[in-house]
Design brief:
- With about 500 residues, this protein is mostly beta strands.
- The protein has five domains: about 240 residues, Jelly Rolls (Sandwich), CATH 2.60.120.200; about 40 residues, no CATH class; about 35 residues, no CATH class; about 40 residues, no CATH class; about 90 residues, no CATH class.
- Helices cover about 10% and strands about 30% of the residues.
- Strands 1, 5, 10, 11, 12, 13, 15, 16 and 19 form a nine-stranded antiparallel β-sheet that branches.
- A hairpin with a 2-residue loop joins strand 11 and strand 12.
């Protein structure tokens, strides 16, 4: 809701203006900026809204930074305002030196005029572009120990001035919206005006220029007017301990405000976590309460793992009691329980009872599984009497029965052979083999019982050589050769029999 301080024109002398200085009244934080308007008077531009702060030591420092947000509504026309429209003025009120004078010139650019001592000289800083109308812009005039710079919206403007001497220390009047001896009033909005006793860095200017980004207890602040007093206030309060309050003349309060710090993320608001479910998860709802246009911050988690602790059961629905057992007890089971998904509690699942045995009619036998079926076509099992009825004599179940014998499947006879004997002089050795398993479905040839070997050295013949001896030796060799041929033929026949048997 817009709060308006009714604009009233008072044409007052300099002395009557100063009578408004340092007015003390309760501070009401409602409005966001002051609107400075023009007042037509006999065809000229006469003094409009202003804030007069008066004699003070505000610039009695070697370094300073002056900054504020402005939102101009019009440019100077040049009629009775050749100098431009004053935003902030510091001077002696007599037409002499004006150590600091910040204004909007006839080209629409921001202009800062600074006087320097030793030797006296004035330097003028001008923004590179006109200040856009009906739009908030921030300016900062930084006066350092060796140089002075002007910043618009955190951007340094051309024209750094290397100080020839220290800047003049204005200890006279300070006015916002117009000067004390020039009319040239400003038309537009002003917000967040601060004066520092240090030369602020470009990073500090860029980060802290936003509304509400600093507090009045900062030790480097000389004065800080946040323009948040309210529609019924005629005093602009300084938030620093210096209390450099100013009297408001002919300005209207408005709820328009300089920009707040740019957002960095969306803002989400989440409810409490629900109870942990039986599946080991719990949920909550989250809603986006502020949407930042420059980022897309994901929603916080709406589901998470948890340790489920089931509630304790308090009531049950049971099955019927079972028959009373010989030990004098009977049991029952739980059909359902409440609350749903509960566990534990103290259900009654057993109770004492009077056992009455019923008359028996037969013995009770327990038998094992039937055994392997033998070649004779029978198999057996063991049976044991587990209950002996005194009034009956129930015979044991059968412990033997006929079965169909399944012959084991075989593919060959099994032979077992001994070790090979010594090699004879003729180069042959023997062994014995015995059939240990006779496969009825196939006839397997026996293993080889003779094989060649390396004959040992024959003893040297001591008799003299003769034809008869030579002939005898040849006959012996021929006989050995015949035996070897017979062995080979026997082995060949065995191999052929094995091949035919597998077919």
């Amino acid at each position: 809701m817009t709060k308006i301080f009714q604009k009233t024109y008072f044409y007052v002398s300099l002395i009557s203006c100063l009578a408004l200085l340092f007015c003390l009244a309760p501070k009401i934080t409602e409005a966001a900026s002051l609107n400075f308007a023009l007042n037509p008077y006999q065809g000229e531009i006469r003094p409009g809204g202003a804030i007069l702060i008066g004699t003070n030591p505000i610039f009695d420092t070697n370094e300073a930074t002056i900054e504020a947000w402005i939102n101009p509504k019009s440019y100077p026309t040049g009629i009775g305002e050749d100098e431009g429209r004053t935003i902030l003025w510091n001077g002696d009120g007599t037409g002499g030196h004006d150590p600091y004078w910040i204004l909007l010139n006839t080209s629409g650019r921001l202009e800062a005029r600074v006087d320097y001592d030793s030797p006296y000289q004035q330097h003028i800083f001008v923004s590179s572009d006109p200040i856009e109308l009906n739009t908030w812009h921030h300016f900062a005039l930084v006066i350092g120990a060796v140089s002075t710079d002007l910043y618009i919206d955190g951007v340094k403007q051309p024209g750094t001035f290397l100080n020839g001497g220290p800047a003049c220390k204005g200890t006279n009047y300070l006015a916002v919206g117009r000067s004390m001896w020039h009319w040239n009033p400003y038309e537009g909005l002003i917000d967040e005006m601060r004066i520092w006793k240090v030369a602020r860095t470009v990073t500090e200017i860029q980060n802290d220029r936003w509304t509400g980004s600093v507090s009045g207890d900062n030790p480097d602040l000389v004065a800080y007017w946040d323009y948040e007093q309210g529609a019924n206030s005629s005093v602009l309060y300084d938030l620093t301990p210096n209390h450099l309050n100013g009297g408001i003349q002919g300005c209207t309060w408005t709820n328009e405000s300089a920009p707040a710090p740019p957002c960095q993320a969306d803002v989400w608001s989440c409810g409490e976590w629900n109870a942990c479910s039986i599946s080991g998860t719990q949920t909550r709802t989250c809603a986006k309460t502020f949407e930042c246009s420059t980022v897309d911050t994901p929603s916080p988690a709406t589901s998470q793992s948890c340790v489920y602790t089931p509630p304790t059961c308090t009531s049950w629905i049971y099955s019927d009691w079972s028959a009373c057992q010989p030990n004098g007890t009977q049991t029952r089971s739980i059909a359902s329980s409440t609350p749903n998904g509960c566990a534990g509690g103290n259900p009654v699942l057993t109770q004492n009872c009077i056992y009455t045995p019923s008359p028996c009619t037969a013995d009770v036998w327990s038998c094992g599984e039937w055994g392997f079926c033998f070649v004779n076509g029978k198999q057996s099992r063991n049976c044991t009497k587990t209950f002996d009825c005194l009034t009956a004599n129930t015979p044991s179940p059968a412990t033997s029965q006929k079965c169909t014998y399944q012959k084991p499947t075989c593919t060959a006879d099994t032979w077992t052979c001994g070790a090979w004997g010594e090699c004879s002089l003729s180069g042959i050795q023997n062994r014995s083999c015995t059939k240990t398993f006779d496969c009825p479905d196939i006839q397997t040839a026996p293993p080889t019982t003779e094989q060649y070997c390396k004959a040992p050295n024959k003893p040297t013949n001591q008799s003299s050589s003769s034809d008869e001896a030579t002939i005898a030796q040849l006959k012996s060799q021929i006989a050995d050769l015949q035996r070897q041929i017979m062995i080979l033929l026997t082995q060949l026949i065995q191999v052929l029999q094995q091949q035919l048997g597998h077919r």
